[in-house]
Amino acid sequence: MENIQKHSIILWSRDEYRLRLTRIREHMSASSVDAILLSDNANIYYLTGRVFAGYAYVTLKGEPIYFVRRPVGLSGDSVVYIRKPEEITGSIGMAAPQSIGIELDVLPYSSVQRLVPLFPGAELKNASSIMRSVRAIKPPMALQMLRESGERHTRVYSRIPGLFQEGMSDYDLQVEIENVSRREGCLGQFRIRTRSPGGRGEKSHGA
User: Fold this and answer.
1) Which of 59, 93, 95, 123 would be a feasible disulfide site paired with 99, CB 3.0-4.6 Å?
2) Secondary structure (3-state) at 21
3) Which residues contact 12 (CB under 8 A, 6 or more apart)?
4) What's the rounded Cα separation, in Å, for the pair 39 and 94?
5) pLDDT band at 4 (very low <50, low <70, confident <90, very high)
6) In the chain, what percentage of residues exceed pLDDT 70?
7) Model confidence pLDDT, tens digit, residues 141-183
8) Among 46-50, 107-111, 178-182, 203-207, which stretch is predicted with the lowest mean pLDDT?
9) pLDDT reported for residue 108
10) By three-state DSSP, how is residue 5 classified?
């Protein structure tokens, strides 16, 4: 995949980024929302191709603005580094929209209460429902990535019977599965079910 820039806030190709941004704006317009402020990892990843701590501010026109707390070093004309949410509006002097979408389904109540005053007079709307609708239909590139992921999972699971040896502990088997998974490109998050005399447990192992 052709990246715009290695340390750019956007990791998608230009065409993919524009496609995703257009889809978000279409759903915003259909919901009569002038602007949305995104902070959920899934939503930020959908738009940018990366995860960062901060906010993505998207309006119906103009370039989105990315308010980043960390990591340091991301580049782009639309990147603004902040330490706290209250710096969002003051840092660029932007005017409040008539309506603002905030992720009401995923943000804690205290976070919502902290963000709402940043947009005085704006009608509050739920950006979570907008982004769910956007992400419900996968773009072609995402479908291709899912197909490739499925093929890799198939290769990993087809090898599991050959990894088990008599007398092997659950832990040792998990190590062998993780080794094969990583060689197939897994980034290091695993969910493995194990059965023991005390019952069945499920653990998530992350790197």
Assistant:
1) 123
2) helix
3) 1, 3, 4, 20, 48, 49, 141
4) 19
5) very low
6) 86
7) 999 989 999 999 999 999 999 999 999 999 999 999 999 999 9
8) 203-207
9) 97
10) coil
Residue with tokens 């890799």: 152
Distance CA 97, CA 94 (A): 9
Sign of the Cα pseudo-torsion (186, 188, 189, 194, in order): positive
Tokens of residue 115, six digits: 């963000």
Q: Which two tokens stand for residue 13?
A: 């190709």
What pLDDT is stored for residue 187 in this prediction?
72
Listed in sequence order, the DSSP H helices in 51-169 are 87-92, 109-115, 127-136, 140-163
**C-alpha to C-alpha distances, 14 to 5, 10, 49, 101, nearest whole angstrom:** 10, 9, 11, 25
d(CA 101, CA 104): 8
Judged on CB neighbours under 10 Å (0-12, 13-18, 19+), 33 is buried
3-state secondary structure of 193: strand
Cβ atoms of residues 89 and 119 within 8 Å: yes
Q: Cis before residue 197, ω within 30 degrees of 0?
A: no
Which residue type is seen at 163?
A: L
